[in-house]
Amino acid sequence: MRCQTGTPPPPRWRHPALGSEKPALRLAAARAEQVGQAHGWSPATFLYVLDGLTLLLNDRAPGDTVPLTEVRHRASERGRGVRIAEVLAAAGLLDDDTEPAIRSWIHRRTNELPAAFASDVRAWLLVLLDGDTRSRPRSPRTVYSYFGSVRPLLEQWSASRGHLREITSTDIATAIEPLRGWPRSNTITALRSLFRFATRRRVVFTNPTARLTNPGGERSLLPMTDAEIRAIETRVTTPAQRLVVALAAVHAADATTIRGLILDDVDLPNRRITLRGVAQPLGPLAHRALKVWTEHRRSTWPHTPNPHLLISRGTAHGVGSVSQTYITDQLLPDGVGIDRIRNDRILHEALSIGPDPLHLALIFNIGHTTASRYTAFAQAIT
């Protein structure tokens, strides 16, 4: 009827936030529209998000950001909080004022320590995490590891010692004497770190670990340090190097597995890879590295008959795989060990999901004895 009479259709209703006079609300609403289209939000979800943005931004002063804790408190109905926070972050309007999990963990676990040691150990762990003028920040995994090693000793010493300055070199020697392998090595490293900190802060007058030597133990099971990670990031530059490191860091693939991969094991469009006969999703880092490598491989050796994923100048004209030593000794630069990277990945899994040797054995195709070593370490540091 409207077409016959020339009556125009009524204007389509738009949420007031999309045309708000408040610049921040209008910006956030427009960004919500973009994010919603990209993620396939339903119309109802889009309206819920706009309602939440209006609630949070309509009365806010220009230039103010929205604390994440307020988003969670005021706009969590029907799961809107996560989406609203995503939109606010994309618009540069979110202030993440939440305490990182590692910080709450430090406070919780040190509160469980004997009172004589709690405050000093807490200060040490926070400096490990944040760094200071004399040390760089350490990863949360290192913090977990160090604390897990010293905690039993602190609890033991608390029966006869009232302060860190009362701990003697004899006490330390007696405590570590029964330890062997990586537990001994990690404990020595952690104790030296603790008492170096205590000496710098004048918590203790004499460092009881000054003459303590560390034979190394089972070094490969210790978490990678930030310095090691930065060294790898700066020294690994070629597509082949990045491929090998990504497969080790994300999927815990060893050199034997990587050299045996063929092109049919990789499904880039569906983001899948078959490792050790098991198909699994490709992590984002590995997916990017594989995409760059396959493009490089195609442009460098467009007519190679070799079916293997990783090829070199020496294998491109045949069908054989690269050698083990090519990966470990020729491809990767000095100081970048594939086994070290792989071990760190397995340890991270053990710390993330809990000490379950069967899970580790299945997901990484390792033996039960090896899996048990990782789970024992994870139990010791959590």
The name of the CATH architecture of the largest domain is: Orthogonal Bundle
Coarse structural class? mainly alpha
Q: Numbering strands along the chain, what is their spatial order in the largest sheet?
A: 3-4-5
CATH-assigned fold name of the largest domain: DNA polymerase, domain 1
Helix content: 55-70%
Name the beta content range.
under 5%
CATH class of the largest domain equals Mainly Alpha
Radius of gyration, CA atoms, in whole angstroms: 28 Å
Count of helical segments? Answer: 18
Structural write-up:
The chain is mainly alpha-helical and 382 residues long. It has three domains: 16-95, no CATH class; 101-221, Orthogonal Bundle (DNA polymerase, domain 1); 226-336, Orthogonal Bundle (hpI Integrase, Chain A). The protein is 57% helix and 4% strand. It contains 18 helices and five strands. The strands form two sheets. A three-stranded antiparallel sheet has the order 3-4-5, with no helix packed on it. It has a two-stranded parallel sheet with strand order 1-2. Strand 4 (272-275) and strand 5 form a beta hairpin. Helix 8 (140-157) packs across helix 10 (181-200). The longest helix has 20 residues, at 181-200. The radius of gyration is 28 Å and the shape is flat. The N and C termini lie far apart (73 Å). The mean pLDDT is 84.
